[in-house]
Structures are given as structure tokens and as C-alpha cells.
Amino acid sequence: MSALHGKHPASLLLFFAILAPARAAAPPTELAWSLKSDPRSLDPAKVDDQAAETVRFLTGGVLLRLNRHTLQIEPSLASSWNTSRDGLLVTFHLRPGLLFSDGSPLTSAAVAASVKHVLDPATGAPVAAQFLSPQAVTVETPDPLTVRIHLPRRVVSVGKLFDEIAIEPSGPTTEGRVTSGSFTIAEYRRGQFIRLERNPRYWKHDPSGAALPYLRTIRLDILPNRETDQLRFSRGQYQLIDGLSADDFRHLAQTNPSSVHDLGPSLNTEQIWFNQSVSAPLPAWEKAWFANRAFRVAVSQAIHRADLARIAYDGHATPAGGFISPSNRDWYDTHLRLPPEGTSVAQQTLTGAGFKRVGASLLDPQGHPVKFSILTNAGNRSREKMAMLIQQDLAALGMQVNLVTLDFPALIERLMHTQAYECALLGLSSVDPDPGSMMNIWLSSSPNHQWNPSEKTPATPWEAEIDQQMRLLGASPDDEVRKQAIDTVQQIVADQQPFIYLVYPNMLYAVSPQLTGVDMTLLQPGVVSNIDWIHWKGDSI
Amino acid sequence: MRQIVRRVALRVVWHVARMASLILLSALGTVWLMRSAPGYFSDMRETDPRYAESARAELELQREQQKTVSGMTGKLLKGWLVGDLGQSRQYDVPVTTLLRPRVRVSVQLLLDGIIAGWLAALAIALPLSARRGSTGEMLIAVPSAILLAIPTGAMAILCLMLDAGGPILVLATLVGVRDFKLVYTLLRQTWTDPCFLQARAQGIGTARMMVAHLLPGIAQHLVALATMSVVLGLSAIVPIEVIFNVPGIGQLAWSAAMNRDLPVLLAVTLLMAVGVGAMSIFGAQMATVEAA
To answer: B140 and B183 in contact (C-beta within 8 Å)?
Structure first.
């Protein structure tokens, strides 16, 4: 007979207690979504990462705001603005009666201080470089409501730059605690969350006169492990997902189809490129393949982009031919001539360049078997799937392709420092529809000229031509000239294939049906671009 | 008594010296491994045309400051001696400000998990060990073997997906399952001591025997086992915190490793080394006292 009889309610209770759900889903009192990482700085002038940019957008009041839909510059803290005919003087007229969130007046002095803080080399503000000669810029405040900014050189699309300059009170930065934007930072726990509260003195009102923003509080969770985003959204802990993956989109679409939104092709691209750097530690024959236009074109021709979009992105991507997405209507070249796609045409291109097929292998004109590795970052499922599909497509040509996935720091070291790679597969996030923002990628002298960084002089005539056209794009105030220049660059890239564009991933968002007034955009911050107008369904506003 | 105190004191000195050397070695190892890790002097922002320039300027400065491993280690340890754990590369703030709130979170999680695990282990082991037959033991053997075979990360993901339990449940299961076996064996052996067998034969109640004699008799063993639970918990805390997004030192360690944040990783490594070392010393002392 057993020494101890009966049941043991205490132990059972303990188990039920620890087996209970970690957190019961409570009705939301604040709008919540996640940031991938902590902002590197809360000083709005020092924004140099995505998380900080989102925080700046939500908290920073700006003179002018770029409308993420129309791409037009709209007055914000400044009620009006103009530039002189020579483009060297920009004048802003502030709205009267503006206040910071702490009640102090927002005058031209604060604007001047904020602009100077951004232009100060000690601040290291990334936007300063776009003023071309930031140290030579002077700011004048003839009266409390007028600000004049004198530029030493004309800056194309200068208005857009003021969308990135948050106006703060004079003196040391308050790091978002005192703002002129929609929200202020109420609490920040590093690695956990940022809690924002409505700025009670925000200047904007709706047509009925109600103060904006409608939302009272926002919680931005710092969530490095993005895989839990979808789970938290499903449980009602988050109301938004900014930049949903194709896999998560599919899962959510099954359970809550009304919450997911596909905005069509984003401005971002996914591409592969071959290492054409002269200093790369690669055998001479490999360098010769990668520098060979026919080789690159053949690879491009052999890749079935529609399959990439269908399989790797579950249909939520659009095959890409160039670096400008069809969503970027002002700059997309509708007459772009792309190399024809198909395995047989790719084989012909290779044969024309002296490559020959022996059995299952492709040999170069010197008899070296064509084999190389594609390098990409670990953990991005769509990219890994694309790499595998490309591997299959190129195997049909007799190329032996291996896949190498590395974590980001190791990958970047190879791409940016040691140049120890053959082919890379990565994406480029475009945050500005104006292709002038891609100057650093296309100029041959730039360290971000990925296929052959920091060229002392353009390595090829077509790169010299790209340089020339990009400079024209950067300097000309004439929109037609600029469009012509970028069309030329698009065609050169299509002909030469230094970047072999694969797909434009679609912009995917998840929005809780509890919210109303959400107006998603392709441009960052996408799902909260109109944060002032978002509110809970049923809330009296 | 004096002899016991002397023996214990000597062992403590020996353990502390051993721990100090271990800490020094782990510091050197961490610095060397991290400094030689691919991508130490790279930054994800380098590929973003908007931020590349500022990222490169920062890296250049760091490269200047961290030319040699010995110089880096010396500087870091010198800082440690005066309570300065350095500046985080990733967040650009003092490491202490990152650690302080996170240590609290992790300690709380460890305590909750270990206590829950122990309560569960005792709640099952106490009644089972008192039984004469082995049916109960066999019944519990299969689920505990299965739970032991599941890696911590997999268990955490399962809980997350099922929305059943949280980090405490995973830690408690891990600790409970591993300690159950040890506690059960200990109790089973104790029950078979002649004195307990005789007491049973005389009709003394099991509960009374347990409270008055059995548990006090094996308390030191249990404490020694509990210290090992802390070591086990520390080793599991990284995957658990990462998967459940718990803002503790485990998550910080993972993020520091991913971002090559040497000062933070070093501080967390050393903190964990001190924790493990202290628990080992404590466990060893309990054994010494017991033997004496």
C-alpha cells in the first residue's frame, strides 16, 4: 500500500498556474507595434538608423513635411516657404503661436538653433552632407516668425531636406522629451520599449477643430526577434506590423484576412552582383568572367524572375528589371529595354562569349569550369529561397553555384572591406523616390559602388557615363534633364547588368481592424505615415 | 569545529583564486575571440548610402583605439578595476547603464523559474519516493526523458507558439525535470535507511517523518543541488530570453554577440562566470561541511 494517498491539489494548482498563458490579451489602451532595435540616438539631428528615424517622424516637428503619398512637400511648422530664383536663399514663414510640448514658444530662434545643430560637423548629422557645403550655410532670423537660410550652392529638391530636421527648443537636445511634433517621449527603457504621449500643444487640428493626433499613447516595443511580431499581432498585443514578411503575410491572411495589406511593389530592390573589384582576392579567370558583360547578361537571362516572386515571396513580389520600381512613377522608365529572359538565349550569349558546355559543366574559354558562391545574409528566408532558385536556374547553364549565408557583420566585412566574395545577393531599401538619393551607389568613386567600390577613375567607359549622368541628375534644377539622365543610367545598367535585379518585394503591412484612419504608404514610415489621423474604431474624436 | 572552519576557509581561498584565474582567462578569451570574429570592424549601416559615411567614421575611430588585443584587454581590465565596464559599441552608452536594469530582470526570472521548478520536482518526487512500488517511477520516467531530450530553445518556441506559459515555465520545466531525478534518487535512498524503515513499521505517519526527519536530514544535499540549478538556469537564460524577448542579460549577450559589442559581451560573460563560480564554491562548501 502506498504511504501517501489521495490527490495533491497543491502540485496540480502549481502546474496549472505555470501552464496558464504568459499574458492574457487585454483590450489595448495604447497603439503598439515593434521596432527591430533601439534607436542609436534620440537626438533627432543624429538619426542614423531606421528605428531612430521612426521615432523622429513621430516626435519631431518639421518646417516642411514630405507627403508620403503625393511626394509633394507640404508646409508644416512653416505656413509658407520659398526659394530664390538662384536657389541660394530659402525663406520660411512660421505659423504664429507655435508652442513646444512644454508650453515654451517656438520661434525663429529655435528653428535657427535646430538647423545650426544639424549643420554643425560636431553633431555628425547624416542629413548635413546633403546641403553640399554645410559649414558655409548661414541662418538668419529677421523676426520671430521668419527664417532665412543662405546656401553657398544650389541644392536640388532642398525642401525635402527640411523633412529631416526636427525643430527642438534651443539648448541641449531634450532627446524627444520636449518636441514640436505629434508625440513626445514619455518613457524609454532601453531594450524594452519607448512610450510616446500625445503632444498637447501640437499645432495641427482636424477640420472640426479637434486637436491632433487622435491617439493618446503609443508603445514601440524593441523586438530584435521579429518572428514573434506576427504572434503578438494575432494575440492583439500589437495593432500594426510594419514591413511584414511574405511568410507572415500568408499566416495572417489565413486567420485574419482583413488585417493584411499588400500595397504592391515597394521602392526596394533585391539584386545579385558579381565582384568586379580589381583588388579582390579571386583567381584571375574568375575576375575575367565577372568583368565580362556577356557573362553577366547570360546570368541575368537565365534567372526566372517570375518564379522567384512566386516561390520565394509567395507571389508578393514583382519581377524586376531595373533599379527603379514601377511604383516610382515619376522616375520609372517605361521604355527600358531589358535582355530577353530564358535558358536557351542565355546559352547562346555564353556561347557567343567563348564559353562551352562539356557534359554537365560550363567551361570558360580557357577551360576553367564555371563555379562560384552566392553570398547572402543568414535568416532571411526569401533571400535564401531566391538563392536556391538561382542556383537551379544557373545549373541549367552548367554553372556550379554554392550558397553561403553569413551573419550581417561577417557579410559586410566581406563586401565592404576584404572583398572576399564572388557573388552577393542582397536588397536595397529605397527611402526616397528621387534617384538622386542613390548617388552613393552609382558614382564609381563611392565606397558604396558595390560591384567595384572606390574606383580612382571609372574602370569602364559605361561607368564613366553613369558618373556623368548622375552628376547631371544631382546638379540640374530642370526636371526634364534629370529624368533624361536617370533614364540613360537605367538603360546602361540594363545593358551592362552590374547589378542583376531580381524582384521588387511588395510592401506588406498588417493593421488591426480595431484601428481606423490608417493610410499606408510605400515610403517610410509606411504604416504610420498619417499617424495624426489614426484612431481606435468607436473612439469619439 | 575550528578544524572545519579552517578547512572551509582554505577551500574558499582556493576557489576564489581559481575563480579569479578563470575570470581572467575568460576575459582574454572573449576579447581575443571577439576581436578576431569576422565582421568585428564592420557596421550594417555601411551598406546604407544614407548612413554609410557616419558609420565609417565611427569604425575608423574604433580601429584606431583597438589596434591590439593586448592593449584592448589591458584597457578593459583597467577600467573594470575602477568600476568602469566601458562603453557599449552598439548603443554608445556606459555598459553599467545597460546591465543594471537587465540584471534585475534576469535574476527575477532565474529565481521564479528555479523556485517553480523545485516546487514541481518536490511535489512529484516526495509522494513518489515514499511509495513502495516502482509504478510511479516508471510513469514519470517517460515524460521526464522526453522533456530532458527537448532542447531549451525548442521548448521555448513551442510555448511561444502555443501561447502556453512563458519563460518561467520553460525554465521551471528545465530545472524541475533535471532536478527531479536527483531529488527522487536522494529521497528514495533516504527512505530505505533502517531508521525510516523501522519508524514506518512502528506506524509513524509518512508526512510526520518527512517534515520532522527526512527533509532536515537531506537539507544540505538539497541546497547543493539548488546551487547547480542556478548554473543550469544561467546556461539556459540566453535562448529563453531571446525567444521570449525578455529584456535581461541573456538577451543582451545575444545582441552583443550579433553586433560584435565587445565591452557588453565581456561584462555579461564575466558576470555569468562570477555567478557560476560563486555557485560552484557554495556547492562545494556545502559538500565539505556535509563530509565533515
So the answer is: no
